[in-house]
């Protein structure tokens, strides 16, 4: 049975491509989704890709992922810096988590330097644009082929 990954995106990421292109680039979230599916297919993995602007919805999705996915790739967007609830949900899911940010948050405003998610993540990828998502999928791909 192919292993499945869950890719989750937080608030405002539906605006990718239109939103602050100097920071986030011109690619859309549909481009990110296509990139993730292509990377997963190379490793014979399947992938579910979602975005929400509602914190409770993201928390429900994380709860439902428990036992159903090999791992979670999450760009929590602004909730990275604010949400204990998302961190607690990820802990409760008991799945390996890779945190992804399109921009290098450490080069930006001080309030973006702290992440509630990083301490419970397997790893963090930031600053590589949308390629960071592909890198995260590749990591899970090489883990399962070991
Ligand atoms: C982001 C960085 C966050 O600080 C910001 O709030 C976002 C996107 C990124 O992908 O670079 O919405 O997570």
From TrEMBL:
It catalyses: 3-dehydroquinate = 3-dehydroshikimate + H2O. One of its GO terms (molecular function) is 3-dehydroquinate dehydratase activity. Pathway: Metabolic intermediate biosynthesis; chorismate biosynthesis; chorismate from D-erythrose 4-phosphate and phosphoenolpyruvate: step 3/7. HAMAP family: AroQ. PANTHER family: CATABOLIC 3-DEHYDROQUINASE. The record marks 19 as: Transition state stabilizer. One of its GO terms (biological process) is aromatic amino acid family biosynthetic process. Homododecamer. Catalyzes a trans-dehydration via an enolate intermediate. Belongs to the type-II 3-dehydroquinase family. Keywords: Amino-acid biosynthesis, Aromatic amino acid biosynthesis, Lyase. The active site is at 24 (proton acceptor), 101 (proton donor). Substrate binds at residues 75, 81, 88, 102-103, 112. The gene is aroQ. The keyword Lyase applies. It comes from Pseudomonas duriflava. Its EC number is 4.2.1.10. The lineage of its organism: Bacteria, Pseudomonadati, Pseudomonadota, Gammaproteobacteria, Pseudomonadales. This is 3-dehydroquinate dehydratase. Transmembrane segments: none annotated.
